[in-house]
Amino acid sequence: MLRLYCLLILMLNLALPVLSVDTYSKEDFPPGFIFGAATSAYQVEGAAREDGRSPSVWDTFSRGGGDVAVDEYHKYKEDVQLMAETGLGAYRFSISWARLIPNGRGPVNPKGLRYYNNLINELISHGIQAHVLLYNYDHPQSLEDEYGGWLSRNIVRDFTAYADVCFREFGDRVSSWSTINEPNIFANGGYDQGVVPPGRCSYPFGLWNCSKGNSSTEPYLAAHNMLLAHASTVRLYKDRYQSKQNGVIGVTLYALWLVPLTNSTEDETAAQRAMDFLIGWFVNPLVFGDYPEVMKKNAGSRLPVLTDQESKLVKGAFDFLGLIHYTTVYIKDNSKILKTENRDFNADMAVTISFTQDEDDPFGLFPVEYPQRPWGLQGLLEYLKQAYGNPPVYIHENGQVSRRNSSLDDTSRVEYLHAYIGSLLDAIRNGSNTRGYFVWSFLDVFELLDGRGSSYGLYFVDLDDPSLRRLPKKSAHWYSHFLKGGRVSSSRTLELEKTFGDSSSETLVSIG
Ligand SMILES: *[C@@H]1O[C@H](CO)[C@@H](O)[C@H](O)[C@H]1NC(C)=O
Ligand SMILES: *[C@@H]1O[C@H](CO)[C@@H](O)[C@H](O)[C@H]1NC(C)=O
Ligand SMILES: *[C@@H]1O[C@H](CO)[C@@H](O)[C@H](O)[C@H]1NC(C)=O
Ligand SMILES: *[C@@H]1O[C@H](CO)[C@@H](O)[C@H](O)[C@H]1NC(C)=O
Ligand SMILES: *[C@@H]1O[C@H](CO)[C@@H](O)[C@H](O)[C@H]1NC(C)=O
């Protein structure tokens, strides 16, 4: 393990920025490679109090901010039509546990069952694969009230039973299952910083004073139970469903690429340590059966121990790793913080993170746009290849954020997608085992961190229009051209600029 660790330190330096390929088409990707776009239940469905759905911890946290969202619950046919016109090969969406099993366990809600069956059938009949996520920050509030949600081992049993219903009812038509979305950021954001549901933290940690929580211990405990729930669910799928249903199953992690701020040994070690805390937290148990050594050392008894039995359950419990990748950040050593007694997950990681190479620039949570560093995607994929034996990967989210407004002229999103998909192609040509790519997001959704303040959508949703009509942005035209086999290049972006440059007018331009 120690030798491997030293090796990894060296490898972070291997991935040098490489200019990504500029001109390419879908045909350049391996046969069977799937392109799609993604959303999640609470962010699009709306109908939060309809047809027997119960509140989830996200409803509570956002005080009903997603009550309507973009009303996909009622508009799914229209949305699937739009997906088909755009040329999506797959749609990645999530199931709302609180809609399907309102009490968290026990009776299944027939109207919830009907909705997801309708959505899946609509997708399949349009030739679009269903890639389904089981969980995105949204367990039923009743389970939070009853036993503290992810802080209790009870959730392993209830989550697995919920997944069982999903496999049994929908699995014959689902190509790919992902268990838990970005558990690494969920555990940190929800139980240490308190910025996402269920909003727990303890003073002096967290961005504000939470009413409940313990930032020193809860992130590790919650993550441990997520890991066990994931593994138990994967075992269930593999034992009872996979041979008949022929889908694949994995977990989806938030994965920035991390670069040492300077060439100092301290910063290089710090970048590796951050990689172990952010990615290794889940991937080491899944690949090697245990948490990274540096986490055990720095978190001590606050990090739960994976028993031999748990280690066996977890090790190898995935067909693929899903990655959520938006940008690359710079890492600076902060190991002096390890001298303080009272630490949270972030202090244990002992680094500072910045979006720029300017050492004084703080980690901003809401950048107007992500720094475009497409080479970081290659770096990340090369790292997974070398450090973890090149597992199958899906890029489950990638896209550019912007302020949410009615401008359909999102040239910077087009440039971002063009550069990142090109970088992905380069990584694949160098041996990365990536099988699919999903743009976040198919349309403007209710965003996790700031609701309706920012957006990532290929389609704009007009919230001032009672029918919430969807309008294609320039990026929808660009992606559609690519998905239908067209070649893309920087000059193609310029062409689009000419054709749709002044498309901020509200005319509905049909795709294709
Ligand atoms: C948060 O709690 C701490 C300790 O109880 C207190 O000193 C501080 O003023 C509080 N901050 C806010 C913004 O309420
Ligand atoms: C967090 O839990 C640990 C271990 O039980 C305890 O020592 C510490 O005081 C707790 N912190 C808070 C803020 O409750
Ligand atoms: C790190 O080293 C590389 C190669 O030796 C050099 O090109 C680069 O400028 C150095 N970076 C910093 C931040 O010192
Ligand atoms: C809309 O968002 C874009 C991208 O963030 C920005 O450049 C533009 O100024 C915004 N327009 C308005 C009217 O806010
Ligand atoms: C390409 O793969 C080789 C072999 O795994 C590796 O040594 C090299 O660093 C990779 N190149 C890039 C640019 O990632």
Automatic annotation (TrEMBL):
<dbReference type="Pfam" id="PF00232">
    <property type="entry name" value="Glyco_hydro_1"/>
</dbReference>
<dbReference type="InterPro" id="IPR001360">
    <property type="entry name" value="Glyco_hydro_1"/>
</dbReference>
<dbReference type="InterPro" id="IPR033132">
    <property type="entry name" value="GH_1_N_CS"/>
</dbReference>
<protein>
    <recommendedName>
        <fullName>Beta-glucosidase</fullName>
    </recommendedName>
</protein>
<dbReference type="GO" id="GO:0005975">
    <property type="term" value="P:carbohydrate metabolic process"/>
</dbReference>
<keyword id="KW-0378">Hydrolase</keyword>
<keyword id="KW-0325">Glycoprotein</keyword>
<dbReference type="InterPro" id="IPR017853">
    <property type="entry name" value="GH"/>
</dbReference>
<keyword id="KW-0732">Signal</keyword>
<feature type="signal peptide">
    <location>
        <begin position="1"/>
        <end position="20"/>
    </location>
</feature>
<comment type="similarity">
    <text>Belongs to the glycosyl hydrolase 1 family.</text>
</comment>
<dbReference type="GO" id="GO:0008422">
    <property type="term" value="F:beta-glucosidase activity"/>
</dbReference>
